[in-house]
Amino acid sequence: MGDAPGNFGARLRWWRAHRGLSQLALAGEADISQRHLSFLESGRTEPSRDMVLRLAAALDLTLRQQNALLLAAGFAPVWRESDLAAAELAEVARALDHMLARQEPYPAFVVDRRWKVLRANAGAASMVAFLTGAQAAATDGVNLADALMSPAALRPLIVNWDEVALYFLRGVQADAVADATPETAALLKRLLAYPDAPKLSQLAPQESHGPVLTIHFRKDRTSLHLFTTIATLGTPHDVTLQEIRIECFFPSTDETARLFEQWAADRSRRVN
Predict the structure, then answer these.
(1) pLDDT tens digit sequence for 42-60
(2) Are the C-beta atoms of residues 213 and 227 closer than 8 Å to each other?
């Protein structure tokens, strides 16, 4: 999957085709005439800044891709991309820390668009430490996608890895289709290249095992049964914030819940 062209008209035409829309359909979504859209795609008409944003909204482009479309049309980006540690994002950073803390004693991670860990709570560190055997688990900078798929990381510890991997890969594929960036396409290609990675064309399991997909970790005689929820920040006006995800793990068995509670109690005793 390649990136969109640099020329505005070609880029617009590429995105329309990528979204599976006819000129008539996109023109209707953007509330312009098909003739006007045709002239924009061919370069016979130069777009205004507002028209670029209108078309970007009709194409459901991410903030990052909206900026790219503006640049292709000769306009400055309107959406900033801030470092999560920047002063202007301090309020959001505090909110993320609050969500991580409220998830205790269960694991929670803040990850970027391509599953790089930006922050994690103590419950996440305890889980990683248990699974990897590290005394002090370092989670920042770890790529959860690679950790899930790599035989050198968590993969050997996931009992239902085929099912989990297929579900996860389809999610990354959807991301690649949605943002159409070389980086996300490269991530998908890398994950699919891992040994015995399931094919995206495989059918989903016919038998349902419950209302959610549970990840079953097993190390020695200890099992962890967890399911996850993924949250995003609503109405973001910053590229970084739009691409952030908060993944929270919840126990699906009483035994798993008790184990995390025990780890939290052990941490508390060490601190005190």
Answers:
(1) 999 999 999 999 999 999 9
(2) yes
Q: If you search the block for the tokens 């005439």, which residue do you land on?
A: 33
Cβ neighbour number for residue 13 with a 10 Å cutoff: 20
Q: For residue 86, give both structure tokens.
A: 């920047």
Please check whether residue 64 is in contact with residue 81, taking contact to mean a CB–CB distance below 8 angstroms.
yes
Would you tell me how many other CB atoms lie within 10 Å of the CB of residue 48?
11
CA distance 139 to 116: 9
Q: Domain 87-271 carries which CATH code?
A: 3.30.450.20
Which pTM value belongs to this model?
Answer: 0.86
The 8-class DSSP code of residue 143 comes to B
Give residue limits of the domains in the chain: 8-72, 87-271
Amino acid at 3: D
- What residues contact residue 32 under an 8 Å CB cut-off, 6+ apart? 51, 54
The CATH superfamily assigned to 8-72 is lambda repressor-like DNA-binding domains (1.10.260.40)
Q: Where are the beta strands (DSSP E) in the chain?
A: 108-111, 117-120, 215-219, 222-231, 245-251
Reading the block at residue 192, the tokens are 């699919």
Which pLDDT tens digit goes with each residue over 7-51?
999 999 999 999 999 999 999 999 999 999 999 999 999 999 999
